What we know:
Elements: E1 3-8, E2 24-25, E3 28-29, H1 30-38, E4 44-49, H2 52-57, E5 65-68, H3 75-86, E6 91-96, H4 104-111, E7 119-124, E8 127-128, E9 132-136, H5 140-148, E10 163-166, H6 168-174, H7 187-198
Parallel strand pairs: 1-4, 1-6, 4-5, 7-10
Antiparallel strand pairs: 2-3, 6-9, 7-8, 7-9
Amino acid sequence: MEVTGIILAGGMSRRLGRNKVLVPMGGEPLVNRVNGRLSQVANRTVVVVNSRERASELELPDKVRVVVDIHPDRATLGGIFTGLSEADTQWSIVVGCDMPFLNVTLLRKMLEFREGYDAVVPVVDGYPEPTHALYSRTCLPAIERKVLANDLKIARFYDEVRINFLPEAQVDQLDPEGLSFFNINTPQDLDRANSLIEQGR
């Protein structure tokens, strides 16, 4: 079954102090690095941004679609809604634009747990990780209700759909260092990421 990769790139990067999607990472913009990992699993990629200006700043492969939030200012949940709405496959892998160490093996394993569910969400440090997850288009009605009600905590729509939570023990087997979920929010995070890349991660 084909799957779409959705990269959420609508954040304002306030703590980093500059547009994180364009930060150089291993010789390429961060969003391009994320797309490079994701495209090893997904058949196509959609990048969700919060404005046409942001879209014009990106230099991605021609096959990557860049779309603007359908519901502006509705946080990450609004970005997930936009991405799923624009996807032309039943299932999508949703990740943040600031996750430079996506684990392709883990993503492929998650795809094996879709049957009978509307979403597959890994558990990390005892909590679901909603921006490194699989969502079916069957989630769209529940997500839209929350977006329109401005109830934007992602996990709030989980009670309305069938979620397969990937156990933390299984996540740890495939990604014992948890680098899949490392994201860049601060200059210190950026320094650490560059150090890891120099080590060949």
